[in-house]
Amino acid sequence: MDSAVLLDILGNENRRRILRLLSHKPCYVTEISEYLGVSPKAVIDHLRKLEEAGLVESRTDDQRRKYFNISRNLRLEVDVSPYEFDMKSAYPASPSLDVSTCQYLSLNVQYGNQPDGREAEDDTETVSEAEAGEIATLAEELNCLEDLKSELSLAQRWVHGRITNVLDQLGEEVDENGQNRIRAEILAALAAGAETVRDVSRETDAPEHIVERHLTSMSERGIVKDNGGNWTLSG
After folding, report:
1. What are the tens digits of pLDDT across the range 16-70?
2. How far apart are CA 200 and CA 210, in angstroms?
3. How much is the pTM?
4. How far apart are CA 28 and CA 22, in angstroms?
5. How buried is 114 (Cβ within 10 angstroms: 0-12 exposed, 13-18 middle, 19+ buried)?
6. Start and end of every HTH arsR-type domain (predicted)?
7. Partner of 224 at 20 to 30 A CA spacing, among 13, 47, 131, 164?
């Protein structure tokens, strides 16, 4: 799903309220209508747009009444700073992802067993001692993951702020008036391994002639080096 389209769909408050309600339980149109205080016709229109976006889906119960639920897990991220405007949507990574391969991230999380596919039992039936223990373990894991989610959010905010600070400092070092913010992005692209003007242009999303002009200017000041069309940092 295109992030811009998704952001536009979620820009409507009633659609956000519908998703908030459906995150607690599946609902019929009449339930949603009462919750929002709007007509069923308006609810159906919102649900149609959410269905087209792949965010909700409908099913039919034993009485052939249609109800709706959220259809998938999705994360939408928006970054706005003096140096960046970026939107991206992502689906959850595979449970088998090995996070130990991350270069900067280290997680200490113990994972419980995955669901074994058993059908849900009657919620009035007494569970066994082993099942009660499994429920307690899953509840504890959920609590740990919620804490981890909060810590990762805090870490993301710290990184976002630090990136802006470093770009500010970098911009001041390479440009006295601090207006050519693109230079900081060009230097970051070189540090990441980009070498040619085309590589840097792709990384910074800036036209090649603009990139080349700034590289030439910084080369004259000894900040970068031109090695036959391959650019590197001087330091």
Report:
1. 999 999 999 999 999 999 999 999 999 999 999 999 999 999 999 999 999 999 9
2. 11
3. 0.69
4. 10
5. exposed
6. 1-89
7. 164
